[in-house]
Amino acid sequence: MAAESSSNSSTNLRIVVQNNPSDSQLSELGIKSWPKWGCPPGKYQLKFDEQETCYLVRGKVKVKSKNSSEVVEFGAGDLVILPKGLSCTWDVSVAVDKHYKFDTSSSPSSS
Predict the structure, then answer these.
(1) Mind listing the pLDDT tens digit for each residue in 43-83?
(2) What SUPFAM superfamilies does this protein's entry cite (predicted)?
(3) Is 65 in contact with 101 (CB distance < 8 Å)?
C-alpha cells in the first residue's frame, strides 16, 4: 500500500515559480484584471490562508519558509504560486509591484 502525502502537511508547502510565462498564458489567466499589491524593500512576515497566484511586474524577492531552510528567489516577469498555509519571510531587495489572486479551490465554479 503506497502512502500518499497529505496536502495539508506543512512540510510539503512548496512555492512554484515559472520564469517568464508567455503573453498568451498571462492573457488566458486574465492577469491584468487581478488586483495589484506592492511593497518597498524590507522584510515581511507573511502567512497565506489561501493559495495565491501572483505575477511580478517588478521587484526581487527571497522567500524563506518558517518550516524549512529552503530559500526561493523570484522577481519581475515571474509567475508564482504560493501554497495555502505557508508562513514565510519575504526579503524584498527591489520594491515589488504584483498582480495577484487567491485560489479558493473549495468554492464551486459559477460559470
Answers:
(1) 999 999 999 999 999 999 999 999 888 899 999 999 999 99
(2) RmlC-like cupins
(3) no
Phi, psi (degrees; rounded to nearest 5) at 10:
-70, -15
> Distance of CA 55 to CAs 47, 51, 61, Å?
18, 14, 12
Q: How far is CA 53 from CA 4, 17, 46, in A?
A: 25, 10, 15
| Cα–Cα distance for residue pair 2/73, rounded to 1 Å | 33
* Amino acid letter, residue 7: S
Q: How far is the C-alpha of 83 from the C-alpha of 80, rounded, in Å? A: 10
Judge whether 63 and 72 are in contact, CB under 8 Å: yes
Dig out the grid coordinates for 85 from the structure.
498555509
Q: How far is CA 30 from CA 16, 27, 55, 58, 72, in A?
A: 19, 5, 11, 18, 25
